[in-house]
Amino acid sequence: MNSLPRLPAPVPTSGWRKRLETLLAFLPMVLLAILLWGSVWLVRNAPKAVSGAVVAETSHEPDYFANNFTLKTYSLQGDLKSFLQGTSSVHFPDTLTNLIEQPVVHSISRSGRLTTAVAQRSLSNEDGSEIQLIGQAVVHKQGVGTKEPAMTLRSEFIHMFTNTDTLVTYAPVKIERGDNRFQANGMKADNLNQRFLLQGQVKVLLVPGNRP
To answer: Which residues have a Cβ under 8 Å from the Cβ of 193 and sit 6 or more positions away?
Structure first.
C-alpha cells in the first residue's frame, strides 16, 4: 500500500527575515498614515478660492444729477404729503441723500397744516421725511384760525422731520408766533403736541392779550 509522500520539515526562519516580514506587514498602515497627513497639510495650506463676485466699495461720489426739478410725495391714500423744488440736486449712493441748491419745500402735516421752508441748500433723505435746511433757513407754518397763529422760524440750520411735524435746531433761532417774539440758542418744536423747548439764552417778547 502506497503511502503519501511526507512533506519536508520547515526550514527554520532567521531573525532578520522575521523582522523584514513584520515591517512589510505594517508598511500599508504607514503609507496610509503618510497620505492622510499629507492631505490634511494640503487642505490647511491651500490658497482660499476667490469669490467670483467682487463687491465694489461705495464711495461718496454722486451717481446722478438733476437741474430745475420738482419732486412730489404722496400718502398711501393718494394725498399730497410734500412738494420739493430746487435749482439742482445731487444724489449720493453711500448715504442715500440728496444735496439740493435753493430748495423750496412745501409739507402738509397729518392735521392738514401747511409748512413752507426755504434755504440756500438742503440735505434730505430719499423719501423726504428728513430735511436739513442749511444757510438762511426760513420755515413758515400756516395758521389755523385765531387759536393757532402762524409761526415763522429763522436760523442758519433747521432740521425738519416731516412725518412727525418736528423742527430741531442747535443754532441761534428767531421765532415769530403771531405778535409774540422769541430768541434762543437752540430749539425743539413738536408741532403735533404744541410743545416748544428753547435752549440756551432765551429772550421773549409777549404781546398782552396773545397767548404764546
So the answer is: none
Chain-centroid distance, C-alpha 118: 26
Q: Where are the domains of the chain?
A: 15-45, 64-205
Instruction: Please identify, in words, the CATH class of the domain defined by 64-205.
Output: mainly beta
184 within 8 A of 196, measured Cβ to Cβ: no
pLDDT 10s digits, 131-166: 899 999 999 988 877 677 889 999 999 998 888 888
Joined grid coordinates for residue 89: 440736486
- In DSSP terms, 154 is beta-bridged to 138, 174
Phi, psi of 174 (to 5 degrees): -120, 135
Cα-based distances in Å from 117 to 79, 103, 158, 167: 20, 8, 10, 11
Residues 164 and 184: beta-carbon distance below 8 Å: no
Rounded CA-CA distance 174/193 in Å is 20
Report which DSSP code applies to 8.
P
Whether 171 has a pLDDT exceeding 50, the answer reads: yes
Main-chain dihedrals φ then ψ at residue 202, nearest 5 degrees: -115, 135
